[in-house]
Amino acid sequence: MSAPPGVDLKWLGSQFPTLTALAALGHGGQKQVLSARDGSRGDVVLKIFHPRGTLERTVREIQAAKKISCLQVPEIYDFGSIPSPTGQIVWLLERRVPGLMVRHHLGSGPLSDGAIMKVALDVLRPLAQAERARMVHRDVKPENVMYDEAGDAAYLIDFGLVRILDLDSLTASALAMGPATPGYAALEQLQNKKRDIDARADLFGLGVTLYECCEGRNPLRDGATDIRQIIQRTEHSPLPRITRNVEPSGEFVDLVYSMTRPRRDHRIATIADALDWMEDIARRAAAGP
Amino acid sequence: MRVAIQCGHGIMSLCKSLMESWGEGTVILSPKNIPEEKIINFSRVMSGLGASILFDPQLYFPGYKHKNLCQYSYWPDVYDATTFWTSSSADILLGKLLELNTRIGTVAVILPGPYCETVDDTWLQAQESLIAKMRALSGNDRSLYATIALSTEALRNSSQLHDLLDDAAHWPVDGVYLVLQHRDSSYLSNDAMWVGNALDIAASFRLRKRRVIWGYCNHQQLIAACAAADEIGIGTWMNGRMFKPEVFQEPTDREGGNRSAWFYSPGVLSEYQLDRLDLAQGLGMLDSLRMPSEFQSPRGDLPFAGGDPSNSGFSELDGFTHYLWCMRTHAEQAVRATFEETAQFHEASLNEAQRLLAILHASGIRSGRDFSNAIDANRGALALLRRTRGPLLARAWPTLLA
Fold first, then answer.
1. Which of A22, A235, A272, B191 is the most core-located residue (most Cβ within 10 A)?
2. CB–CB of A146/A123 below 8 Å?
3. Which is it for the CA torsion B383, B384, B390, B396, positive or negative?
4. Would you tell me how many other CB atoms lie within 10 Å of the CB of residue A19?
């Protein structure tokens, strides 16, 4: 594996002597993500936040993940800051959750009924905790949801865009679009209406993800030529109802439909309500006909 | 859903007789039609008969000097829409209004609701300010209803509507009193978006566990049952069955409206003057307009006693009484065990009315208050409601009825 751009792997290895098998998992604008083995903890993820990144945003990601004590979110083992050849860097060591990104699973087509139900339940749980802590993940999408087929469990990862509602926003209000992934972000995020962003934005992102898990496609993104077109679709072409029943009652279709309405007032009012609904659906499905 | 009597011109004795028969129900008092010195006594009489009393302060246009409204002690001498509700004058007004509500013995306080031409920051801030002030004055034990008085334009503008709903989600009130201007002053609306957006507002508040009373309604608003509205306020004259802003600005020459008897036929959701019933009688079709027995309106069978309906003695007052009895039964029937059953019941009523009206029309039996044009508006509105909030209403329905 070649070293990702940014901090050199060999140098990193020297800074974290307990870690072995360091390998790149990915990188974004402000951070590198690496997998590694830790002698006592097993598989871990090491995140390196670039010196040019916003320290404040990094701190918030750490704060957010620490506030959610839930098996469906990777546990943070340690974090700190060290001088590097390119300047001071912040690092974060967390548990590596098993499984693959839902995006990876989607490469083989729609997910199985059971996997979809599990993704819904397991991602709603940490989101409900985030809602109670007045936090919005703001980037729920197939790349940020892991599904472990063997353990039948799903995980929500990457709180890098988290918004803590009681703290000042880190995004300039004047920006036309807030931090978001078009095609999964709610309209109020895309329009950077910061006052309007609450947990219902995460319901939208998860709803689109679940839609894609069921249908194998995302109509908000498919064939779009640019971001403007995706935004227009998000506002004016709401996702249709899912055409597949993943459980006997058919209510899962209603749930996802009610998560993905363009106007937030038309969505389920809270994540707690959505979780409650999903648990009812799962209970009835488990009980059988 | 229940029907509240929307008081208006000359309704006091009718109210009394209805409450004597019903033994319960809500009465919404109208300061435009009852002087302050009489309202306390009237409310006492009504309460004694089992009525729950609400007082609509009718502060839709506080800057106007409507000759009846401005006699009320709470009416402001000076009013500036941009500053009034954040000023100390608002505290004085709200204090007097709260005191009047206490003297009347209202079950909840309907707050002032300045008429909203456009949902903008000025109007939203005024609402927030007056609600916060009244909450501070009344404490948390008093039930407060915010008044939302919207122009047709504001109601039809989905962007404004959602600004309103987003803002109102945080209002510290127990319910809302909706007052919605009818489009083009039409008694019955043929505008599905108007009806649909009204349902959207009602459903939004109900799903947030707030009570909803929709004021100044007629039978077209029975569809509010599909949005789980708690009550619709229905009056006798047109001014009590549709919100016309101008009647709260200046007294009209004939507050009572045009005087003639109208007979409401529940099966066709339409009203007929008696000469039309005569024609139906002559054509042997009068029975299709007869009230089904479960409606129990004591004067409802009078035009069907034999002979020409116009000579039956069915009076204008009988028309009002019969209409309100029918609305009460309609409203009770309108809510079903599930959202889908409720919506289907409403659709079935529309289908049956359409079928019967087609037969009547083929024989030239039409009316100025014919429901034909409203049928598609209600169908369209229901389709919108199903699309936007159907699954949420279906899920919440048992708790909404509790």
1. B191
2. no
3. negative
4. 19
For residue A42, the cross-strand partners are: A38
Residue linked to tokens 């329905």: B397
Q: Write out the H or E segment, with its range, that includes residue A77.
A: strand A76-84
In whole numbers, what is the pLDDT of chain A averaged over residues?
88
Asked which of A148-162, A211-225, A256-270 is least confident by mean pLDDT, the reply is A148-162
B378 phi and psi angles, rounded to 5 deg: -70, -35
Residues of chain B neighbouring A265 (CB-CB closer than 8 A): 162, 165-166, 169, 204
Please enumerate residues of B whose Cβ is less than 8 A from a Cβ of A.
Answer: 158, 162, 165-166, 169, 204, 207-208, 388-389, 391-392, 394-395
Question: What span, in angstroms and rounded, lies between the C-alpha atoms of B365 and A113?
Answer: 58
Residue of A191, A193, A95, A200 whose CA lies nearest to A138 = A200
Asked if A236 reaches chain B (Cβ–Cβ under 8 Å), the answer is no
Whether B311 has a pLDDT exceeding 90, the answer reads yes
ipTM of the complex: 0.87
Chain segment A239-272, per-residue pLDDT in tens: 999 999 999 999 999 999 999 999 999 999 999 9
Q: In what order do the strands lie in the sheet with A153-156?
A: A100-101, A145-148, A153-156
Q: Is B379 helix (H, G, I), strand (E, B) or coil?
A: helix
User: How many whole angstroms separate alpha carbon A206 and alpha carbon A260?
Assistant: 8
Q: How far apart are CA B6 and CA B236, in angstroms?
A: 8
Is residue A217 a contact partner of residue A103, using CB atoms and an 8 Å limit?
Answer: no
Q: Where are the alpha helices (DSSP H) in B301-338?
A: 316-334
Determine which helix (DSSP H) or strand (DSSP E) holds B48, and give its type and residue range. Answer: helix B36-48
pLDDT digits (tens, 9 = 90+) for B91-135: 999 999 999 999 999 999 999 999 999 999 999 999 999 999 999
Which residue from B292, B293, B288, B266 is spatially nearest to B277, judged by alpha carbons?
A: B288
**pTM for the predicted model, two decimal places:** 0.91
User: Nearest CA of chain A to the CA of B227: how many Å?
Assistant: 13
